[in-house]
Design goal:
Protein name: KilA-N domain-containing protein
Number of helices: 12
Radius of gyration: 26 Å
Low-confidence stretches: 267-275, 277-282
Largest sheet: 5 strands, antiparallel
Strand content: 5-15%
Order of helices and strands: EEEHHHHHEEHHHHHHH
Length: 282
C-alpha cells in the first residue's frame, strides 16, 4: 500500500484513508458499509439531504476553502427538507467548489471526506462506530509519528557520522598544524555554513536571527529529506576538500547536488521551487 492510501479495521469493517493535499480523508463509503453494506451510497445521499448536514458542510467550507461558492450553497440549502430534494457528493462539489468531500473511482474509490466531516458522518451513522473509528485513527497516526521520528533520528545520526568524516577532512586538509583552537573553530564553522548555504540558503547565524523563537539550530528543524541530503553533502564535501577544490567552487557543486537530490526526494513542486540557488547559477 502506498503512503497515500492506508486502511484501518473498525469493528470488523475496513475503512480506507487517503492523503489529499497533505490532509487525511476518510472513506465515507466504507463507514456507510458498516450500517448498509449493500447500498452504502444511499446512506451518504440521505445524509446529504439533511439540512444540519448542509449547514455543517457549508460552515466547514467557509472556514477552509477560499473558492467556496456561497451563492450556490444558499440555493442548495433552501431546497433541503423538500421531498424532491436529492444531492450526491459529486453534485455538491461541482456546484459549490467544495473541497471537504471527494469522490474517487478505481481501487481506492468511493466518497472520501476530511476527518472533521468524516467523524460527523460516522456519528450520524452510529455513535459507537464513531468512537471506535476515532480510536483506531488515532492509533494509526501515533504509529506514523513513531516511524517518522525513528526515520528522523536515523538520518540525524547518519548526518552526525558524516559530519565526523567531514571535520576530519577539514582538519587534514584545511587547518594548518600551527593555528590556534579558536582559528580552527572558525574554519569548522565556515565549512558547516558552506553546507548550510548550499542546502538551506542560510548560514547558522542568519537562521537564528530569522527564527529567534525556535530552539536548537537550523539542522534540528530540518526535514527528513533535508537531513538525508545533508549527510550526502558532507561526504561529497569531504571528497572535494581532499581534491583541493576552493570553497567557492565547492559551494556551487554542493548547491547543484542539493537541488538534484531534493528534486528526487520530494514530489512537491512547491518544495522544489523553494530550494536555494547559488547566485552564479541564475
Amino acid at each position: 500500500m502506498s503512503k497515500k492510501n492506508q486502511s484501518i479495521l473498525v469493528q470488523g469493517t475496513p475503512v480506507k484513508i487517503r492523503k489529499v493535499n497533505e490532509h487525511d480523508y476518510i472513506c465515507l463509503t466504507d463507514i456507510a458499509k458498516s450500517k448498509n453494506p449493500e447500498r452504502p451510497d444511499d446512506l451518504i445521499r440521505n445524509w446529504l439531504r439533511n439540512r444540519n448536514t448542509l449547514e455543517l458542510l457549508g460552515i466547514w467550507e467557509q472556514l477552509h476553502n477560499a473558492n467556496f461558492n456561497p451563492v450556490e450553497f444558499d440555493g442548495i440549502k433552501k431546497q433541503a427538507g423538500l421531498n424532491s430534494f436529492t444531492l450526491t457528493p459529486k453534485q455538491w462539489c461541482a456546484q459549490t467548489h467544495a473541497i471537504g468531500l471527494e469522490s474517487k473511482t478505481g481501487r481506492y474509490g468511493g466518497t472520501y471526506a476530511h476527518t472533521d466531516i468524516a467523524f460527523e458522518f460516522a456519528s450520524w451513522v452510529s455513535v459507537e462506530f464513531k468512537l471506535y473509528l476515532i480510536k483506531d485513527f488515532q492509533r494509526l497516526k501515533a504509529d506514523e509519528n513513531d516511524r517518522l521520528k525513528l526515520t528522523w533520528d536515523l538520518n540525524r545520526t547518519l548526518s552526525k557520522i558524516n559530519y565526523r568524516i567531514h571535520t576530519d577532512a577539514i582538519k587534514a586538509n584545511l587547518i594548518p598544524p600551527e593555528i590556534s583552537s579558536s582559528q580552527a573553530s572558525f574554519t569548522y564553522a565556515n565549512e558547516a555554513d558552506l553546507l548550510n548555504v548550499a542546502l538551506f540558503s542560510s548560514t547558522a547565524k542568519e537562521w537564528r536571527e530569522a527564527n529567534p523563537e525556535l530552539k536548537g539550530n537550523i539542522r534540528d528543524h530540518a526535514t527528513i529529506e533535508q537531513l538525508l541530503v545533508l549527510a550526502n553533502l558532507e561526504s561529497l564535501n569531504a571528497e572535494f576538500i581532499h581534491m583541493g577544490l576552493p570553497s567557492s567552487e565547492r559551494l556551487i557543486k554542493l548547491n547543484a547536488m542539493a537541488i538534484r537530490q531534493m528534486k528526487s526526494l520530494t514530489a512537491s513542486t512547491q518544495t522544489i521551487q523553494q530550494l536555494p540557488h547559488h547566485p552564479s547559477e541564475k
